[in-house]
Amino acid sequence: MKNRLFSRVKTGLLPGKIHPIFPQRENVTALQRQTPLGWVYGLSRLWGATMLKLALIGFSLLLLGYFMNLSPQMHIAVRTARSVSKRLTDRFENRHELSPNKKGHNDLVSDADVETEEEIIRQLKGSYPSYKVLAEESGGSLPKRGFCWIIDPIDGTTNFIHGIPHFSISIALAENGKVIGGLVFDPMRNEMFVGENGRGAFLNDYRIRTSKSQSLKDSLIATGFPHREKADLESYLKTFSSIFKECRGIRRQGSAALDLAYVAAGRYDGFWESGLSRWDIAAGAIIVSEAGGFITDFKGGSGFLNSGEVVAATPAVHTQMMEKISTKEKREKKITLKLKKD
């Protein structure tokens, strides 16, 4: 009886059942009973629907690791960014109608910046009215308690005004002063980069990781010029020269948020810049971290939101870039050591 039941399991035949592969007859040859499909089907009929349900649950959990699974707040942020981008791209096509103004030295603002920011805040406040806002054009502060949206309506305003299709919408969410989620949306390429604490980093719903680069000499690096604070130019040029001599190439495209997103996606292997604001960094920083990259200030600490100094890269390349970064402290240390030797 046992051998007969075992044979039926292998063929998918149980009492009163029709063979799944050969429905026209119940008896099959020994060779046909040995097919893997016959084994699988027979076991599934014995174990019933329970095993099928467990298999589907396991497969679903596996998919969650590859596809985007966001919190309600970040879903609202993504929906908002996509919504305002339609109007923003229209303004880009008709940019000759814009009236750009100067906020400061080499720091431009346009009608589109203000309009986009107001609409982003309106939509986010509609869903979460109690959340605070820190935005580039309307200001605000980052509270130590509660939730706060950190918004840059157009990161890359100079590109936008001059007709260069490389700019982004950046929205981050902070809780108790710590960034827990963020998105960087490129409306011209329809690329939505999203990262959320403990949930991973994604590009258009698919998981992304930083590159596997282990060496600066094999790396493509991005940077931004200190266009606001020309006093930092000497220090920047020393760092630029040091990294340029070692790496494969350097790119400067004019949107720090997108530079960070590109590091997360493995397009760049590293990025550094100084003189940035919180809204330039916040969203991109969490995306890099969730993609497996390292991001610090020039001293190797986590104070980049306050200092505006950022180094982001793969773990190995980050270490090598930190050795090349020129800072005031490093220069003073070199001068002190030189004086001691003399």
Task: Summarize this structure as a short list of keywords or feature phrases.
342 residues, alpha+beta, Fructose-1,6-Bisphosphatase, Chain A, domain 1, D-Maltodextrin-Binding Protein, domain 2, seven-stranded mixed β-sheet, 13 helices, 14 strands, globular, disordered C terminus
What is the strand and helix layout of this fold?
Blueprint: H1 2-11, H2 30-33, H3 36-47, H4 49-64, H5 72-93, E1 101-104, E2 107-109, H6 111-127, E3 132-135, E4 147-155, H7 157-161, E5 168-175, E6 178-186, E7 191-196, E8 200-203, E9 206-207, E10 220-223, H8 233-244, E11 249-251, H9 256-264, E12 270-273, H10 278-290, E13 294-296, H11 304-307, E14 310-313, H12 315-324, H13 328-341
Parallel strand pairs: 3-4, 10-11, 10-12
Antiparallel strand pairs: 1-2, 4-5, 5-6, 6-7, 7-8, 8-9, 12-14, 13-14
Helix pairs in contact: 1-3, 5-6, 9-10
